[in-house]
């Protein structure tokens, strides 16, 4: 769910989340994507039909100075590329997809987009459907880094290259190129900031057990804290799937279980927003340090107001552009990197002016 900050204070938005009045409709977005894709396919068919009629109208060519030349050239081959992400309710993936879509469209090609709504079985079915439609390349951010294996095997059987976004998979041999943020480094940066704030704390971790990047972030965070030698205690690791509503419910339960929680480390900002809504409802937000990973406009606004402590900022704009570049390097037989790691940056209230609160980096 995207939580817009313009026109209202952040705390009012958190209250709306907590009350359930601000939500996200997966079915509506799925219909929107399906309708948009259908319109693109229909436009493509009409354009192609028009060009073919023009060819017939002028016959097959014209005679100029004793030579027979083409009057109309047939349209060049239009490539069809498939893309599927864990969920497009997360603005991070939505932004990546928008960047890829812009480049694919500018090249006159077609991008089929699928949103499985964090359902791996559905994602596998959608990948198979796109393969049957004849996609030449697949871009995927898996719901489950192990569960996606059967779909990737089918892509290999059909000779379709795969670009993996923001994740790793159980069998890297099934992937042509992997593009990720420095996820371990993201957790490390959050931990270093916490170390600079306090030498002892009771901490809860909000994770996404199906995401490899989630484990990388938490590894970087926890290992850095351990190496510090300070008195940090992990109260509980709670899986919330990186979802706002699940994170809010998980945080409500954690607040009932533990009378004192000093720090929340969330693996993404959807989870952080859900946790903050629960903390705000309980009146505990001002006394709790909240860390996350993403660097969304919503999180930067919260940091600016002193409600969120810090985030390790990814760059979905850069990831999307890189993915689009690699798409054509692969399809055109050019050299390409098989593993691309995009740097992350820490954003705190002290340096928020340098990044601003409008848009992604």
Automatic annotation (TrEMBL):
Gene Ontology cellular component annotations, sorted alphabetically: cell envelope
Any Pfam family: Peripla_BP_4
Query: What CDD domains does the record point to?
Result: PBP1_ABC_sugar_binding-like
What range(s) does the Periplasmic binding protein domain occupy? Answer: 82-334
Give the molecular function GO annotations.
carbohydrate binding
Localization, UniProt: Cell envelope
Sorted alphabetically, the keyword list is: Membrane, Signal, Transmembrane, Transmembrane helix
Q: Which InterPro entries match?
A: Peripla_BP_I, SBP_2_dom
User: What stretches pass through the bilayer?
Assistant: 43-64
Q: Matching PANTHER family, A to Z?
A: D-ALLOSE-BINDING PERIPLASMIC PROTEIN-RELATED
Which family, according to the similarity comment?
Belongs to the bacterial solute-binding protein 2 family.
Q: How is this protein named in the record?
A: GntR family transcriptional regulator
Ranked from the top, the taxonomy reads: Bacteria, Bacillati, Bacillota, Clostridia, Eubacteriales
